[in-house]
Amino acid sequence: MFKNSFSRFRTISFMEGISYLVLLFMAMPLKYFAGMPVFVKVVGMAHGILFILFFVYLYFASKEHNFGMRFNILAFIASLVPFGTFMLEKRLKQMVPVGNN
Fold it and tell me: How far is CA 94 from CA 24, 89, 90, 100, in A?
């Protein structure tokens, strides 16, 4: 399933994007409109862990596949923007290393 750091990074990137959307569009409205803050705590913790893992695996994938500084900065920005990691995934599909089909 995870052949190298590139495929691990793609998976974590996707999971981080999902957790960000769940936090923004489900947990936050439940907190502020329904008075249920527990969802922000749970989803926020999961998102925080995935956010950190995103950068850990970005580092490893960057070292292994020689991503440029420009790509790393764009990946950082994508992690901060809702739906950004999904736009990043489109770019990552174009960059699939040989043997990772």
Answer: 28, 9, 7, 12
The tokens describing 69, both together, are: 């500084």
Please tell me the pTM assigned to this model. Answer: 0.86
The answer to whether position 25 is within a domain reads yes
pLDDT in tens, 2-48: 578 888 999 999 999 999 999 999 999 999 999 999 999 999 999 99
Q: Are 54 and 88 in contact (CB under 8 A)?
A: no
Question: Residue 101 falls within a domain, yes or no?
Answer: no
- Expressed as residue numbers, the domain containing 81 is 5-94
Domain count, the chain: 1
Decide if 31 is inside a domain. Answer: yes
